[in-house]
Amino acid sequence: MNIIACVKQVPDTEAQIKVKADGSGIEEGQIKWIMNPYDEYGVEEALRLKEKNGGDVTIVSLGPARAMETIRTALAMGADKGVHVCDPALDNADAYVTAAALAAVIKGLPHDIIFCGQRAVDDDSGQVGPILAELLGIPQLTIVTKTEYAANTIKAIRPIEGAQLLIETSLPCVVTAQKGLNEPRYASLPGIMKAKKKPVDVKNAAALGIDTQAKAKVAKFIPPPARAAGKIICGDDPAQKATEVARLLREEAKVI
Amino acid sequence: MSLNQLVDSRDVRFVVFEMLDIDKLKRFERFAEFDRSMYEDTLNLAEKIAVNQFYTSNADGDKIGLKFNTATGEVTVPDSFHKAFQAFTEAGFHNLMFPPDEGGMGLPVTISFASEEYFNAGNTALSMYCSSITGTAHLIINNGSAALKKMFLPKMIAGEWGGTMCLTEPGAGTDVGALKTKAMRQSDGTYLISGQKIFISNGEQDITENIIHPVLARIEGDPAGTKGISIFIVPKYLVNEDGSLGKRNDMICSGIEHKMGLKGNATSTLNFGDNGKCVGYLLGKECQGMKIMFQLMNEARIYTGIQAQSVSSAAYLHAVTYARNRIQGAHITQMLNDSAPKVAIIEHPDVKRMLLYMKSTVEGMRMLTLYLAYNQDIMLSSADAEELKETKAVIEILTPIVKAGISDAAWLVTAEAIQVYGGYGYCQEYPVEQYARDSKVFSIYEGTNAIQSLDLQMRKILMDPNHYNYSILKKRIAETLKAAKGIVDDKYITPVDRGMAKLDEVINMMSSQMQEGKFMALVLNATPLQQAMFPLVLAWLHLWSLTITIPKMKAFLGDAKGEARQKLVSENNEAAYYGGRVLSSQFFIGSEYPKYFGKMECIMGNEGAAIKAVSDNFTGALKE
Ligand SMILES: Cc1cc2nc3c(=O)[nH]c(=O)nc-3n(C[C@H](O)[C@H](O)[C@H](O)COP(=O)(O)OP(=O)(O)OC[C@H]3O[C@@H](n4cnc5c(N)ncnc54)[C@H](O)[C@@H]3O)c2cc1C
Fold first, then answer.
1. Domain total for chain B?
2. What is the DSSP secondary structure assignment for residue A23, as one 8-state letter?
3. Residue A202: inside a domain, yes or no?
4. CB contact under 8 A, B45 and A14
5. Nearest by CB to A188, which of B4, B37, B92?
6. Which residues are registered as beta bridge partners of B255?
7. pLDDT in the model for residue A21
8. What is the count of structural domains for chain A?
9. Angle at B320 (CA atoms; ends B318, B323), nearest 5 degrees
10. Is B293 in the pocket of ligand 1 (CB under 6 A)?
11. Is the pTM higher than 0.80?
12. Is residue B484 part of a domain?
């Protein structure tokens, strides 16, 4: 089976994000970068599928030079090879351009099933998997928490409000992974060693023949407002304090 | 590398990459292929497993604890331990530094120690089960016959069988030579073992399917004392020809201790040969037991230092986070202002002092253990006789300081963490009291600190021909003093320089006492000497680190003062790191280390009260 897992390098969820003074982006120098957690479920699912049915797992990632670390992490978990789309022209790629780049890579590779995370925890757009499926002209099973494979078909569970959908489709297809799909394995030390020797193809936009012009542009990054200081209501008379709370809730907070 | 509650990952990187400059190890062929990204990946993996699996099971070890089944002699560990152990061994951390031809990764000891800090800070009771494989397997790798290696190593390397080290008996604690466990030669070359060992860490557990015990015993007819001791490998289950598990050996766990801390680790009483059928395999030659076990004991002593450092690190980081969030009282400068805002306790000068004490001590511990590790890497790789000789000297003299110095300090640092938490720190709902309880045993096992101190004073210094070990330590410190000139303010150099002169004086005095046969006065100063040398060594390492951190800090902060400096520090993590690291070293050399001179004065005073005091002078206590 030819299995593909797409991964994105994102800031660690524990990292303290600081927005650049001019709002053009975030301060990157001080961030720890990790594999997008939803992509990790995808990689794990890909590895399990390979362990069951044979075949190989190719990791595809678009990102700056540092994204190579994330590809290596997936290789250390057990994937076989990687493709790194790396081009400064793609630094501001939106979901469409990203999906187009991934599609261009994947078209050139044999593929039976493609895993993505259901969204990336940095921009939360959740569109790359679906656009990728459209560009490849294949079915998509999104936000999946369970899969079952048979010859040339896949069944998947997708939770929806108050229920679950059981969806079935033929291969090839795109599957986007949701939390709960599996518990990703850790890399291992022998895996880390082997990963160094596994092949990773580096490609730029020209080699892929894609238009790097983003369709959506981030106008400005704005940090969330700092939490305002709390207010302590002083006084000895509880009734008076309660009246004051009610007044503030109505007049200042405007919630009642 | 990210923020976590166990280990300051940035500081680990500083010591490994900036201070020790581990890339220099590339000059040895065995490390030539490794690069920084490989080391980073290893440390990141250790951190991830430690944070997700070890830290989350730490309270289980303490609060759920172990279950002992008196009928079967079996021990059940908390559920969460199994998964964590599996994650550790599947990743291959127990083999990290074994040579590749023995199935290991061949990574530097430095990276191994740095990884161990994460696991032990996460859950030290559990880490002991993990590292027991490493210790026992290493003993077999270095001393086992081909047959023994074949019988035990594959499963140990695979992480499927655990290990222990069995020395202590009811009548043989510090005095190992007094042991009574016996071995009888059999015609097939094996031995029958009979006797009882107590206090055996990892002695029984349900994590691995088999446990491999190295056991010290005396072959019938061999001389009394340590010279008549041999070492045997005694498996819980015998091993079939094909390597599979055979029948149960005649040995059983007859109980586990109920302890103050480290409750997740089974401190076991092991009965060998209750039915006269306990099979043991001789390791090495007869009567070489102490010599062989010393290898494991030395490793275990250093490991104890790392445990102590790790638990201190976790206690420290918890205290910082708590102090940032606990609001109590107004700032001291607003004492008389009733309406002054209340502040986080980290703003109170005395709390900051406690935190700096902890920070500088933990960072000192980390520099010390990693420096020792780095020297071990050289020791295991170099072909240069002079370099080997010097490196060995450094390791010899620093080993008892790592074990005793760090373990004594861990008790103080973890106690300080409780103090930072105030009343909450004393309560079991909060995590720091466990750290203190867990840490106490580090000064006791693997040779009490009294024994470490005698080892330092006698074997490693006074009886060492020409005081070679000591002369090399002095040489290394002198190099740092020289390098610091012009970079570090003299205020932080002079005390270390003066301290070295003082140490010379004390060691000269002790040498004369030895020649004059003033043995009592001499040994009475063993522990004080060890307790003085620990802060001296830490001051040296802090001075060394200042030669790197000061230029870095200046690059980030320039001459900025007051609010401008505060702004730079709050906006840039690296500026905050280097700035904090400089303050930590300055605090240690300026506020903590000067106590050394008082300690040295005590030693020079040669107060004889403890010599004169006899048992009867301790009145008021019962005879029995
Ligand atoms: C939790 C735990 C885990 C342990 N794990 C293991 C293990 O895995 N394997 C193992 O073999 N043992 C283990 N031990 C045993 C441990 O190594 C011993 O407890 C230790 O060596 C001290 O021996 P003891 O308890 O008999 O104390 P004692 O030897 O009775 O010592 C009592 C006191 O007297 C002092 N003292 C004794 N002799 C001298 C001397 N000659 N000079 C100066 N002072 C002296 C000691 O320093 C100490 O302060 C463990 C113990 C504990 C508590």
1. 1
2. S
3. yes
4. no
5. B92
6. B269
7. 85
8. 1
9. 110
10. no
11. yes
12. yes
pLDDT tens-digit readout, B103-113 = 899 999 999 99
The answer to the question of residue A193 being in a domain is yes
Instruction: In whole angstroms, give the CA distance from residue B367 to residue B117.
Output: 12
pLDDT tens readout for residues B125-146: 999 999 999 999 999 999 999 9
Between strands B182-185 and B161-163, the pairing is: unpaired
B446 is known as an active-site residue: yes
The CA distance from B310 to B533, in Å, is 21
Query: Which of A20, A73, A192 is the best substitution to test chain B (most B C-beta atoms within 10 A)?
Result: A192
B443, B464, B460: which is closest to B526 by C-alpha?
B460
Q: How many CA within 13 A on the CB side of residue B106?
A: 16
* Chain B residues lying within 8 Å of A14, measured CB to CB: 2-4
Give the dihedral sign, CA B150/B167/B216/B70: negative
Helix or strand holding residue A85 (H, E): strand A81-85
Q: What is the CA radius of gyration of chain A?
A: 23
Domain hosting B580: range is: 465-611
pLDDT tens per residue, range B217-232: 999 999 999 999 999 9
Tell me the nearest-neighbour CA distance from A187 into chain B, angstroms. Answer: 6
Pairing of strands A146-150, A33-35: unpaired
Using alpha carbons only, how large is chain B's radius of gyration in Å?
25
Interface test with A, best of B3, B9, B43, B45 (most A CBs within 10 A): B45
Task: Please report the pLDDT score of residue B1 as a whole number.
Answer: 57
CA-nearest residue of chain A to B112? A189
Residue A187 lies in a domain: yes
Tell me if A217 is assigned to some domain.
no
Give the separation between CA A54 and CA A48, rounded to whole angstroms: 9
Q: Which tokens hold the place of B395?
A: 């390791």
Out of A18, A76, A189, closest to residue B96 by CB: A189
Evaluate whether residue B488 is within a structural domain: yes
Model confidence pLDDT, tens digit, residues A164-193:
999 999 999 999 999 999 999 999 999 999
pLDDT in tens, B476-506: 999 999 999 999 999 999 999 999 999 999 9
Task: Please tell me the distance from the alpha carbon of residue B123 to that of residue A132, in angstroms, as a whole number.
Answer: 44
Pairwise CA distance, residues A247 & A233, whole Å: 12
Answer yes or no: do B37 and A190 touch at CB < 8 A.
no
Classify burial at B102, counting beta carbons within 10 Å of its beta carbon; exposed 0-12, middle 13-18, buried 19 or more: middle
Question: Does A67 contact chain B (CB < 8 Å)?
Answer: no
Nearest to A76 among B41, B107, B572 (CB): B41
pLDDT beneath 70, residues of chain A? none
| Contact with chain B for residue A192, Cβ under 8 A | yes
In a domain, B445, yes or no: no
Q: Residue A110: give its domain's CATH number.
A: 3.40.50.620
DSSP result, B351-397: HHHHHHHHHHHHHHHHHHHHHHHHHHHHHTT---HHHHHHHHHHHHH
**Contact pairs from chain A to chain B, CB under 8 Å:** 53
Q: Is B183 inside a domain boundary?
A: no
Q: What is the extent of the structural domain holding A61?
A: 2-208
Protein residue with least CA distance to atom 4, ligand 1:
B199
